[in-house]
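Before our next group meeting I need something from you. Please put the record directly below this note.
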Amino acid sequence: MIAEMLSQVSLENLRRDLFRLCRDPFSFRTVSYTAPWHARNSLDETDDFLLERLKSLGTSPRAIPNRVRPYRCNESKDIHRWYSFPYTTDPSYPARSIEVTLTGNDCPGEIIQLIAHKDSQSWINSAGAQDNATGTVVNLELIRLLAAIPHRRTIRFLFCNEEHFPWHSMAMAQEARNRGDDIIAVLNSDSFCGKSDADQAAGRKTLWSVYSTPEGKPLAELVVSLVAKYQIPIEAFVGASGGISDDEGSFINAGFRCAVVNQGSFPYADSQYHLRGDIPERVDLENLRASAQVVLAAVLEVDDRGRI
């Protein structure tokens, strides 16, 4: 059953949605950019697109309001990290996170949490294709497939904003903690296909599953083991992070410690990371499809076997 599901991951869907988010009609996905002759900023318009798409898939997405500030740009820093915290006097803007819940049939109280940040860099006009339109479109494709089948455990998706301040994943993780949610696994999809220029030129397909807690290591090992089990055409590796960060880190800090981030390289090696050159034409679509298959396999395996 899992092998059949993996074969249904659509490269065309991934390509189509990637270019919609990064080229036409959106270009950028921030509160600080409004397209000419448009009344609303590009992040708001992106959210409307995502909500419409998710409803068309038969789900009932929840839009959760919050407020964010764009990061400031500090060109004296390393070129890949020009972001700088906004001042408290900088204006804030309304924004939204989007949550989709697919309720399980047998163990609905056990939750598999998937995350992808949907915004692009707020301190520079970058399409943010690898980081993180790739994760966004993969999770959209996973929802399409998983919403159509029964599953044992609840699968929850969060599309949040990480390239603005503050990260809304922190509030969402704390909300889950306050409710007493039983999140048995957290899988963050961030920067699929981002790899070195050498790997890109050689056509290597790569995925790293990176953990930052002892509880996350078995999950990372499971993710990587599925490549051989289902003969997915990608090289996969386990990485150990030196610290808790990114959106899965918000959930770790809230007490949900079985968590990983799945990404294209580790340490992250994309030469256009956080730069204007992070465009959809650079994304290796076959790598993206294989990455989606790995994450889908992991979700289905955890759904079947339960707590790692």
